[in-house]
Amino acid sequence: MSIRSEKEAVVAELKQKLSSAKGAVLTDYRGLTVAQDTKLRRKLREAAVEYRVVKNTMTRLAASELGISELNQFLEGPTAIAFSEVDPVAPAKIIAQFSKDNKILEIKAGLVEGKVIDMEGVKALASLPPREVLLAKLCGTMQAPIVGMVNVLQGNIRNLVYALEAVRKSKESA
Hints:
It is a single chain. By secondary structure, the protein is an alpha+beta fold. Helix content is about 60%, strand content about 15%. Strands 2-3-1-4-5 form a 5-stranded antiparallel β-sheet, with helices on both faces. α1 (about 5-20) packs across α3 (about 55-65).
């Protein structure tokens, strides 16, 4: 296998990973110790997130072929990418938390559903509550008007019952 075909295979694989990723985070891993890197990789693996060191030129080619050339401005220096095909928030949460604990790891940018976000966007994404909490809030918000309507309607029925009870008591005493 020639070097050119190997590089084409790497670009094709990166292209596939970038296109199928619901979420991805680009980092500058310079300065991490082996122990820190192992700890980060373990946390990412537990969340079904793939973490790879990538060549910037290969990533530029793959991003350009996918039409996400905005990613190119972040491809300077050593780069590693955390990909998740399942959860768009998982890479951002894990990387952001790890970079808080280990100031050496720098977040460069992110990719959510094919859209490039900067470092601040990645941090904002990481601060979102879990999906289940968001769904619960949504259900509560959708349920609130219905509960209010039920209470209003029950109030009318309750008042009617009180009025009938008052009429019954007045007839009994008379």
